[in-house]
# Entry
Amino acid sequence: MILASKIESFVMHCGEMGSRWGFNRTVGQMYGLLIIYQEPLSAIQISEALNISRGNVSMGIKELQSWRLVQVQHKPKDRKEYYSPAGSIWEMAIRVFEERRKREIDPTLSLLRDNLLTEPTNQQEEYAQKQMHEIHDLLETVTHWASELQRLSPEQLNTLMKLGAGVSKIINLKDKLINNGKV
# Structure
């Protein structure tokens, strides 16, 4: 399978983004390929398109399955497994955030909670604990907010994101009015 230049560009970019999302470049390329193709692809097709080994495809599929980003499909009278994205682009974004929360934010919150349970023994520890408390509170707020967002439909999320710029303008206006003593 030969990729058109626009598709290849997108797939290569997904590889670069994959490393930022928390998985390796090849897995990112595989996911980009699956996203951009309308039909499910077999491991052989993925291997040929990306010029990678079948073993590498197999490991990449397992990684994508652990992130719940791909689904397996079968075609009648064909023993091969075919892979496609598991859900919409919005669902993918939510899953990536959820997995990153589990892998990065949750362990950090656990460490911070443990550290905040002990009393500081000196001024440096007291300062460090104050900073850790602020980080903890920020992560808790972000986690709570993200959980609320995950309950929204893609349409509601899209509306909320479009409101984003308007909300910041309202907050800035409120702050300006407060600073000028008009509220």
Remarks:
- The mean pLDDT is 90.
- DSSP finds seven helices and three strands in the chain.
- The domain at 5-85 is CATH 1.10.10.10 (Arc Repressor Mutant, subunit A).
